[in-house]
Design a protein that fits this description.
It is a single chain. By secondary structure, the chain is of the alpha/beta class. The chain has one helix at 2-30; strands at residues 32-33, 37-38, 45-47, 53-56, 61-65, 68-71, 82-85, 90-95, 97-102, 108-111, 118-123, 128-133, 146-149, 153-158, 160-164, 166-168, 172-175, 179-183. It folds into 2 domains: 1-30; 33-183, no CATH class. It contains 1 helix and 18 strands. The longest helix is centred in the N-terminal third of the chain and has 29 residues, at 2-30.
Amino acid sequence: MFMKTTNKLMLVLSLSLFLFCININSAYAKNKVTETLDLTTMETTDKLEEEGWSWDYDTKTLTLDGITIEITDQDEEASDCIKFDRGIDTTIIFKGENNLIADRGYSLYGNYTAGDGTLTLKGEEDAILNLSYKMLKTTYRGNNGTTIGYPHNLVIESGTINNKGTVMVDDTFTMNGGNFNLES
């Protein structure tokens, strides 16, 4: 009788542990995106709950909340994590810890358009934005380890940005607050 009870208890514990591991895995996978967020053609989209991001077309504001965007190139062209229109003022608000990892593309890429827009990065209290690249193959578009490519103006308002790579800005780079850690 004791063996049957012990076996049942072990079965219940094993099943509980298994279900717990599945829930943890799905929670982590929920905020991982493997395709470029192309803000240049995107309408207002709210995927904050499912994937950890939302885009407001009217205000040109992207919100990131604990997301990992990891782009692995499977063809000859490099892909970027986030592509924005460099001719239009765009704001990225980040919450929690966020990771933008590009294989050969840029973490943040200003699409070549006319105009002199500003890319503004704002992190909430204790928010982190990690920008990096893998550089597994020959680069495309002349990207030799550049994580932020070609905004006309770049403004950092707040939060912590850990940048493993080069930043290329057409006109002005302004830091009004926050922390910007550069490792090239």
